[in-house]
Amino acid sequence: MAAAFTTAPTFDAVTSSSPQNQYPPRSPQGLAARWVQWAATPSFFRSPIADTSGARGGLHQPDDVWFLAGSYGGDPVVRHLVVPPRRELFFPVFTMWFVDQRPEVVEQAFGTLSVDGVDTAVDVVATHDPFVVRGGFLNGVNRSRRPVWMSVWGLWGSLSPLGAGQHEVAMRGGDGHGFVVDVTYRLDVRGTA
């Protein structure tokens, strides 16, 4: 178990004026923190992570990037999703999030990513400084509406905007101890940005 944060404010000290995310918003760490905040926004029953079809993948998307969700493990998931053009895609291939502690490196973790059948590199991203997550009711990330200090470690995918038309993004990752995420997105890039 990792040591608890020593510099982060306590839950009681988090206010509406506390910094939500001290990373630059377009940095890998900033995007990872924003992704966790995005994933925690809906309740578990509307979660893009629990979604098996892609129907909830467009909820609460920011204006400058498009987030894709992994899964909670188990059976492979295939999602169909319309994505606006000129949006970078950012998503976890495998990630672990931590409440009120520094992220732990998952030594046996693995991750593969392909875009339209072409293997694409994944990046290790860790947020060593905490960020605040205020989730929706019973969300699958921190299960709390109250502000919670969190961190993440994982293997992440970042893609430049895809051209108009049909694309397949396939990700598979795991902890090396039996937990596996296997998600394929069938994306239709169309519309206006």
Number of domains: 1
Q: Give the structural class.
A: mainly beta
SSE string: HEEEEEEEEEE
Low-confidence stretches: 1-18
Characterize the structure shown.
There is one protein chain. The protein is mainly beta. It has one domain (23-189). It contains one helix and ten strands; from the N terminus they run H-E-E-E-E-E-E-E-E-E-E. Strand 9 (165-174) and strand 10 (180-189) form a beta hairpin. The longest helix has 13 residues, at 28-40.
Short characterization:
The chain has one helix at residues 28-40, and strands spanning 65-67, 77-83, 88-99, 110-115, 118-120, 123-126, 131-133, 148-159, 165-174, 180-189. It is mainly beta and 193 residues long. The chain starts with 27 loop residues before the first helix and ends with a strand.
Note the main attributes of this structure.
mainly beta; five-stranded mixed β-sheet; disordered N terminus; 7% helix; 193 residues; single chain; 36% strand
Q: How would the blueprint of this fold be written?
A:
Blueprint lengths: L27 H13 L24 E3 L9 E7 L4 E12 L10 E6 L2 E3 L2 E4 L4 E3 L14 E12 L5 E10 L5 E10 L4
Parallel strand pairs: 1-3, 2-10
Antiparallel strand pairs: 3-8, 4-5, 4-9, 6-8, 7-8, 9-10
